[in-house]
Recover the amino acids of this structure.
């Protein structure tokens, strides 16, 4: 299946390492390593991809070596928001990348930020990295909020409702975090049927609690505008060698309930590619037998093309040139 078209539906590029979460700021050390303000060190970028950054030019080499046609640029607190760099990358390589922007709703001018990225820079996707472990709930202690009831988030959704087909991507962390809100996605999908909702990381599967994951998928099943990506589930399930048996079980559960038209393959690189090789992440689904070739084409390419690279998103990105 090496000739199958693929879109990496969950990628982070880093013009500058600028992470921030409950551990403070993330500072580059070189050789792909970084250190949080509390002293925690991580290997963020695989060897050979970049010492202090991961640029589009560097990752295009990885994409070409692994026959990846396109990629979706998402934002998160682990790497630091790379909003404007994502805009620049999309403008430079419109046939290879599309992007989502992020905003901290606690910022005083959060709606000005939203409007600027949608109206001036042409984004047609927003990423809410709200997890307690690595997102907004980790650095706004005592200010827990829900996506379906918070007035600030509601103001953003009210604005986005004027853009049918807009995509809302959410990372809400694991089930033991206050940020974990699968029920909110169901509510929002019903409230905004013309928006697309993509939940990252298959809603954080836990091999000790498969029934909880099944309950989440059952809640989402009636809402055709809810999608989920398969990125980083190996990390989450603690798997660092093929054939990723637990990950296969989680994906099979998702397919059985949601079908194959609502699953989006992705890697969550660069960090996830430090635990498993990018080649393994790019090919692990091929021999599982979970999907037929036609279904795999949807998961690898067609679903991300529909959700992220649709005509409205591409036109808006092109219209935002020279900002």
């Amino acid at each position: 299946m090496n000739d199958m078209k693929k879109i990496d539906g969950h990628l982070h590029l880093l013009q500058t390492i600028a992470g921030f979460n409950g551990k403070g700021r993330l500072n580059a050390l070189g050789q792909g390593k970084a250190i949080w303000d509390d002293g925690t060190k991580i290997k963020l970028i695989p060897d050979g991809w970049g010492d202090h950054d991961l640029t589009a030019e560097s990752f295009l080499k990885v994409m070409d070596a692994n026959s990846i046609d396109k990629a979706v640029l998402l934002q998160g607190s682990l790497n630091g928001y790379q909003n404007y760099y994502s805009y620049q990358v999309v403008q430079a390589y419109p046939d290879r990348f599309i992007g989502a922007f992020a905003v901290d709703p606690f910022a005083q001018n959060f709606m000005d930020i939203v409007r600027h990225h949608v109206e001036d820079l042409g984004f047609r996707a927003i990423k809410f990295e709200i997890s307690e472990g690595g997102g907004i709930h980790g650095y706004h202690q005592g200010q827990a909020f829900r996506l379906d009831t918070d007035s600030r988030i509601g103001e953003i959704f009210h604005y986005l409702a004027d853009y049918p087909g807009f995509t809302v991507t959410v990372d809400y962390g694991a089930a033991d975090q206050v940020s974990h809100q699968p029920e909110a996605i169901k509510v929002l999908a019903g409230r905004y049927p013309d928006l697309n909702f993509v939940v990252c990381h298959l809603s954080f599967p836990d091999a000790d609690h498969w029934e909880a994951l099944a309950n989440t998928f059952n809640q989402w099943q009636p809402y055709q505008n809810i999608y989920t990506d398969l990125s980083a589930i190996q990390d989450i399930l603690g798997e660092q060698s093929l054939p990723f048996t637990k990950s296969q079980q989680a994906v099979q559960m998702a397919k059985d309930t949601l079908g194959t038209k609502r699953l989006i393959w992705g890697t969550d690189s660069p960090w996830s590619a430090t635990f498993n090789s990018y080649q393994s992440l790019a090919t692990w689904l091929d021999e599982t037998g979970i999907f037929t070739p036609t279904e795999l084409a949807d998961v690898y390419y067609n679903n991300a093309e529909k959700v992220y690279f649709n005509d409205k998103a591409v036109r808006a990105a092109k219209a935002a040139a020279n900002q």
User: Anything to note?
Assistant: The chain has one domain: 7-319. Residues 85 and 97 are 12 Å apart (CA to CA). The mean pLDDT is 97.
